[in-house]
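ping. complex inputs:
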Amino acid sequence: MVLDAQNSKISINGCILIAPSELVSDPVVSKRHPIHHMTWLYFLTQINTFDVFVDASVNCRPTGHSSFSDKVRVPAGAFGHAPPIVPRDSERGAAPWVTTPCAAPRPVPAVSCDRAPFSTCPGTMASSEDDGAVDEKETNNRRRNRGAIATAWLTFYNIAMTAGWLVLAITMMRFYLQKGTHRGLYRSIAKTLKFFQTAALVEVGHCAIGIVRTSVIVTGVQVCSRIFMVWFIASSIRQVQSEESVILFLVVWTVTEISRYSYYTFNLLHQVPYFIKWARYNLFIVLYPLGVVGELLTIYAALPIVRRTAMYSLRLPNKYNVSFDYYYFLIIAMLSYIPLFPQLFFHMLRQRRKVLHGEVIVEKDD
Amino acid sequence: LKHSVVFFEVEILDAKTKGKLCFLDKWYPTRQSIRLDAKGKSLKDEDVLQHLPVGTTATLYFRDLGAQISWVTVFLTEYAGPLLLYLMFYFRVPFIYAPKYDFTTSKHWVVHLACMCHSFHYMKRLLETLFVHRFSHGTMPLRNIFKNCTYYWGFAAWMAYYINHPLYTPPIYGEQQIRLALVMFLFCQIGNFSIHIALRNLRPPGSKTRKIPYPTKNPFTWIFLLVSCPNYTYELGSWLGFTLMTQCLPVAFFTVVGFFQMTVWAKGKHRSYLKEFRDYPPLRSPILPFVL
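pong. complex structure:
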């Protein structure tokens, strides 16, 4: 450590701090020197390989030298003097921190020395011994402020989906009112349903690129299960289309999706009517279990047909040395509802408590 | 200079509730995580309070890492499973295939070869766990053993079922395909082992220092010139060889899934090498030369 009292410079491990000369006298002694109730300088001499942390604030004279309020934490007990009192970050506001570079092999909560107006540091930040977890927080911080384009696209998407499911609902109602039966209803809406349900894949993309703050996996699983029901059960197995359970889950899906997409739309416009919010966070309590019942009954009805026709199945021997039995796959799919459904249901219940009971609205998909 | 005694006040707060905890004797040491910042990284066992950037009053945060299990235990369990399960399918233990096939053997010689290769692979892994690897961390969370064992044991059973099935179809290109696959497999096994030995020699026993690995006299380690984690590269090569040898889709799935996981690990390792060493060789890629 070099002290140059005349030029009022203290050089510590390469960092140069400028301090008023009257404060700098005895480098070995720690001092506490309040000047103008704002400036004080005290420092401890270096201790071997310790980082030397110096708390130094320079008086702010109106001379163009900006107030140099860099400070760094001070290790206690250096050289037997009364340890100085280290003001905590919160007391000092957003003062930039200076660290001595390179000497410390530990993560120091410091910024680059460039921030401090009067200090220069030759080295870089202390290297971390740990495995690259330093930027874990940065990767977790998605862009909070979506661009205008993203917002516009999301608004358009949600309006389009609301409209699509409304069309589905109206078509279903009209069919039933005209024909009086649910036979043939599925066929009449099959194309529209396939289109709008498959379009939900886009939502997985939204999560992946970060404009919607939801887990990609959760959204992916939900969209995939819907697409599976539409394409691989209802549309491909003709005989189940006349089951009542199909109508059950169709009605449930329609009501849920309309309330969900309209909620998102209003959310993006920052104007959510209370009944939409109410619908979204209350109807699921009834609709969710009903939907699960409808889906399970449909799959159950499909089982004998799948077994008989061996559809989507691959038997041995074949050159890929693999076999697949759609029948057992469906049974496993049905069993998987047992662990998955309660998790999703209670997640929605927790969301409901947060949103409807006045806490911070977390824009999370279910 | 007079030396006075300095007393530290150490306050231990719970990271989640910020409430004060006083005693840490409820949790054994490997599941304690103590940090200076509630959301920051754990302090190491070797850290000394005096050397940390704290004043006279140090505020530390405690987090319970949950039940822990040692790495060695996990590795041994997850590798012993595939070894034994595959053999059960190979010997056609009852209740797997139709009763008329119980305890019969396959008529295809490639099936015997595959059994030898698979068993050799997992024996090698077990022995490396016991005698070669030097672990940086002592323990991992307990639930990992269930996750890992499900993965390894599940895939091993799935593969073994088809390879040892009475209706197994041998590779289309016959002997040529099997020979090539075997060469690839053995080459990569030796390579993988060489890398493990090279990595072991980087670190003296009991230490946790980290150094850049470099090619040694062993030609199998020359791949260090191009790749940061060649053990994963060779592992991929071994499983590609095994896929080719058995021509079995479940094996291909296992190779692909393993490749994804190893790529994630290799990228992480590569990144931490770059962070830690300023002079890290720029030509190296994480797992595949020039590509990935």
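Chain B is about 45% helix and 10% strand.
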